[in-house]
Amino acid sequence: MRARKKRRGCCACRRRDNSGLLSPASMTSNALPQRPPVFSTLRHIARAAAFVALGVGSAAHAAGIRLEDDRGTTLELQAPAKRIVSLMPSLTETVCALGACDRLVGIDRHANWPVQVKGLPQVGGIDDANIERIVALRPDLVLLRPRSRAAEPLERLGIKVLALDAKTHADMRRVMETVARATGKPGAGEAFWRGLDARLNAARARVPLGWQGRRVYFEVHGGVAAASESSFIGETLARLGLTNAVPGTLGPFPKMSPEFVVRADPDVLMVSALGEISSMASRPGWSAMAAIQRGRVCSFASARFDLMMRPGPRLDEAADAIVGCLVSLGNPRP
Known about the structure:
With 334 residues, the protein is α/β, with parallel strands linked by helices. The protein has 13 helices and eleven strands. The protein is 41% helix and 12% strand.
């Protein structure tokens, strides 16, 4: 039987046309020339190369920047942000503090520090950002608050949005490192925070002993509210060894009645320069408070008060301003 198979093969090999080549009729699947081993080897190499390329592509994707913002949204950047629009002054300051001020191409109308940002295009505010103007700046990242109305329309247009909000010192630390990573500077936020933390400790060491533990009323929003223990300002006061007259259970910045402050009878009042002692004394019952009678009022100029209200990288300057005022008031009498 083996011999017959061999003869059929030989007969098939002998079926040739006049040119000496195999005729089409004789080109059966059994008679097709077999590819030499080299073709199989090349096929394996190509297949292996494809897997390698796929692996490189995955590695390149993994090399991108993956962030989670304060909405719980995951954001992926293929490369560090190079064109940034910031819709919050504190975030603008954070970008600059991390050495990426040259990446900013647009800011909100309230940003005013550092001085070089004043020449940048302004795109509105937190609640009235100009979407068309932002898009025209061709940003690869927009920084804003989680509740900003600009987030959704920008994302619909394919623009990357990172929503961040700092309500506490811990939040500030996290936001700084998140912005650092977004700009391709991982670890820079942590490093900056460590320096800031050390400067806060140094500020506490300068608080006169007589003021340690004293009760402070820190007025905000033109006198209708105050910074409580649970606010980032309240945390700064605590870091300096001071006691907040407004409990954190009322919320970070609760609205306050004049009667509450009279009952609290704080040792010192801290207000914007817009709040003059004479006008505060005209509030119901305030003229009888020891802080008013003894002139224990820290009145901060608008620019200084502005930075104190921003949860950002100048937190140490805010602490220095508080300490400076306490020093100027001298040791409080009982």
